Amino acid sequence: MTGDDAASWAASGPASPTDLLALDADLTAAERRTRDRVRGLVDEHVRPHVARWFADGVFPRDLVPRLAEAGLLGMHLRGYGCAGASAVEYGLAMAELEAGDSGIRTFVSVQGSLAMTAIAKHGSDAQKERWLPGMAAGEVIGCFALTEPTAGSDPASMRTTATLVGDEWVIEGAKRWIGLASIADVAVIWAKADDGEGVRVRGFLVPTSTPGFTATPIEPKLSLRASVQCDVELDGVRVPADAILPHHPGLAGPFACLAEARYGIAWGAAGAARDCLEAALGHAAGRVQFGRPIAAFQLTQAKLVDMALEVARAQLLALRLGRLKDTGRLEPHMVSAGKLANVRSAIEVARTARTILGGDGVTLEHSPMRHAANLESVRTYEGTDEVHTLILGRYLTGHQAFR
């Protein structure tokens, strides 16, 4: 290729500038259909309104039926009205939702990857029949209550207890940063209980209308403003003996659900990063300074290239995790690698994109600063950077460094 040919090719631009490595070609037709369907939903029902939702601190309840109709609630589960999608299809959906806003992806993750997965993996047949069809249809909203005011990264130190009194469990304690709790119909509550084989962490299905259950939204927030996170008080909450999740006692129960959510986050963060890159590219092409679009300046191009490389790496990592998951080869440390690396990258991409947008970048007219704020929460929940670093450190060295 001659110099003139190369310049002409570069000037024409790639067919998809945010698919630097042509990953689209490695997706199946079904995977592309899922991605495009969810992207269309986000373009029509999220993007036009999300800035106002974020500014007002409002979660759009009327979006839930649309998410359900699209098969996105518990979409990785099979039966009970769930879509039974592949891991890659689920991941692509999370990427598109988070390209819209982390708060919307968070709703789908809490509902499907946490609450519904807890019931599907650890519940009885009767519990699955009672709750999962309504949750898949968006008629029942669930929450997942593990984190406590004094037990975040160290859930083994939780203080919430469940005591069997006659034929009822009595639950006492407090939870914090519980997504969807104030709008949920059922809560998966994790508590320490003597289940006849010693005191272990167990899950309980608690209708939120139960006396003694109180959920209070945490405000004001600077992040995830189009979502709901709550403090939960459990004051003598009584549920029947069969409210306990019968399978997989101990911390393995909630950790299995967290692994599902972390997997979705790895994809979601890649979607947020891609959206920031697209915003920066669009602005750079149209913003003229010193008689030229700023996209023509070397410093701007360097930023765009750095962002494009991070987006490509995040997409590659997410797709690799998905292929491993679909073949049953995904291991916990791999999920930690994806969550840690992709959220880190997405935050840096969002911050760099904001600089290209200049002063306009601090307004809600543009997405990067909103994404950057949201990603600080994403970075913290489902395992902080420090926790995932130590998980990977343990894998590499064989030494436990948590204590």
UniProtKB/TrEMBL annotation:
<comment type="pathway">
    <text>Amino-acid metabolism; tryptophan metabolism.</text>
</comment>
<dbReference type="Pfam" id="PF02771">
    <property type="entry name" value="Acyl-CoA_dh_N"/>
</dbReference>
<feature type="domain" description="Acyl-CoA dehydrogenase/oxidase N-terminal">
    <location>
        <begin position="29"/>
        <end position="139"/>
    </location>
</feature>
<comment type="similarity">
    <text>Belongs to the acyl-CoA dehydrogenase family.</text>
</comment>
<dbReference type="Pfam" id="PF00441">
    <property type="entry name" value="Acyl-CoA_dh_1"/>
</dbReference>
<keyword id="KW-0285">Flavoprotein</keyword>
<dbReference type="Pfam" id="PF02770">
    <property type="entry name" value="Acyl-CoA_dh_M"/>
</dbReference>
<dbReference type="InterPro" id="IPR036250">
    <property type="entry name" value="AcylCo_DH-like_C"/>
</dbReference>
<keyword id="KW-0809">Transit peptide</keyword>
<dbReference type="InterPro" id="IPR013786">
    <property type="entry name" value="AcylCoA_DH/ox_N"/>
</dbReference>
<feature type="domain" description="Acyl-CoA oxidase/dehydrogenase middle">
    <location>
        <begin position="143"/>
        <end position="237"/>
    </location>
</feature>
<dbReference type="InterPro" id="IPR037069">
    <property type="entry name" value="AcylCoA_DH/ox_N_sf"/>
</dbReference>
<dbReference type="InterPro" id="IPR009100">
    <property type="entry name" value="AcylCoA_DH/oxidase_NM_dom_sf"/>
</dbReference>
<keyword id="KW-0560">Oxidoreductase</keyword>
<keyword id="KW-0274">FAD</keyword>
<protein>
    <recommendedName>
        <fullName>glutaryl-CoA dehydrogenase (ETF)</fullName>
        <ecNumber>1.3.8.6</ecNumber>
    </recommendedName>
</protein>
<dbReference type="InterPro" id="IPR006089">
    <property type="entry name" value="Acyl-CoA_DH_CS"/>
</dbReference>
<feature type="domain" description="Acyl-CoA dehydrogenase/oxidase C-terminal">
    <location>
        <begin position="257"/>
        <end position="395"/>
    </location>
</feature>
<dbReference type="InterPro" id="IPR052033">
    <property type="entry name" value="Glutaryl-CoA_DH_mitochondrial"/>
</dbReference>
<dbReference type="InterPro" id="IPR009075">
    <property type="entry name" value="AcylCo_DH/oxidase_C"/>
</dbReference>
<dbReference type="InterPro" id="IPR006091">
    <property type="entry name" value="Acyl-CoA_Oxase/DH_mid-dom"/>
</dbReference>
<dbReference type="InterPro" id="IPR046373">
    <property type="entry name" value="Acyl-CoA_Oxase/DH_mid-dom_sf"/>
</dbReference>
<comment type="pathway">
    <text>Amino-acid metabolism; lysine degradation.</text>
</comment>
